[in-house]
Amino acid sequence: MKNTLLLLFAILTSFVSFSQNKATPPYEPTQYVQNILQELDIPDATFDKMRGKDNIIQIKLFLNDKGEVTKVTIPNDEFELESLIFPILKQLPNFNPAIVDGTAKASLYNLSFIINEYNYYKTVRQKATPINGMEKFGEKVRNNFYITDQERGYLSLAKTKTKLDIAVDFIIEKDGSVSSFRMVDPEMEYFNKRMMQAVKRAAKKWVPGTINGSPVRTKFTYTLSLSTDFHSLNI
Predict the structure, then answer these.
(1) Nearest alpha carbon to residue 198 among 136, 145, 139
(2) Three-state SS for 234?
(3) What would the pLDDT profile of 189-226 be if each residue is shown by its tens digit?
(4) Which pLDDT tens digit goes with each residue over 61-70?
(5) For residues 181 and 170, is the Cβ–Cβ distance under 8 A?
(6) Which of 223, 122, 138 is nearest to 174 (CA)?
């Protein structure tokens, strides 16, 4: 009798778990957040308060049985983003609604993500360019960057390669200044400050990227390739 009850309980539990499906975004959550950030227009004065830290944004999305976002709340909305984000969510594709016993139901979806000075930027067609042109910019970066033999010895790839690629991401601000430098390869983090100085010396100002003629923050990735005979070094 005991075994029969346990089996019945297992069957009922299995049935319940298969008959209830939570609401899901129309595509991967990471891409969904990227689409929000792409469309989000945070006032400059507000974003200045967000710089220098990871700002955790926790959103409650109220969905109807069609997967439409009908309401949005952000508890402790310090930066007053709720009214900015809601119209964006209304324009994005609907969620796949929650399903209970084969029937679509209204539900609540919790979405959390981080906004910081590294991930808040726009992808644009009219990209930012150094005011002195890419060719001169590249030449000046190379002339202002250096790497010592001892430093090469610290790099694990130095023993196997004769070419070193050092890539850095940075942000072109609306006013054409540069900020928020971060090495693409964490192993190269040692060179972050030196690369930042080389980039800033190579172009004092940039022509910012634009959307519909208005300047926006954009990300730029620059790769410096150094052709050096590492094998000649005693490492």
Answers:
(1) 145
(2) coil
(3) 888 999 999 999 999 899 999 999 999 999 999 999 87
(4) 999 999 999 9
(5) yes
(6) 122
